Amino acid sequence: MSAMLAETRPDEATAVVETHRPARKRVVIIGGGFAGIAAAHALRHADAEVFLIDRRNHHLFQPLLYQVATAVLSPAEIAAPIRQLEARQRNVTVVLADVTGVDVASRTIEASAPGVGVRKIAFDYLVVATGMRPSYFGHDEFARHAPGLKNLNDAETIRGKILGAFELAATTDDEAERARQMTFVLVGAGPSGVELAASLAQMVKITLRGNFHRIDPAKSTIILLDASKRVLPTFAESLSRRVTKHLTKLGVKVMTGLKVETVDEQGVVAGGNRIPSATVLWTAGVAASPVPKMLGSKTDRAGRALVDPFLKVVDAPGVFVVGDAASLMQNGHPVPGVAQAAIQEGRYVGRLIAKELKGRKVRRPFSYFDKGNMAVVGKNYAVLERGWLRTGGFLTWLVWAFVHILSLPQLQNRLRVQHQWFWSYFTGQRSSRLIPEPPGT
Ligand SMILES: Cc1cc2nc3c(=O)[nH]c(=O)nc-3n(C[C@H](O)[C@H](O)[C@H](O)COP(=O)(O)OP(=O)(O)OC[C@H]3O[C@@H](n4cnc5c(N)ncnc54)[C@H](O)[C@@H]3O)c2cc1C
Question: From the CB of 217, is ligand 1 less than 6 Å away?
Answer without folding.
Answer: no
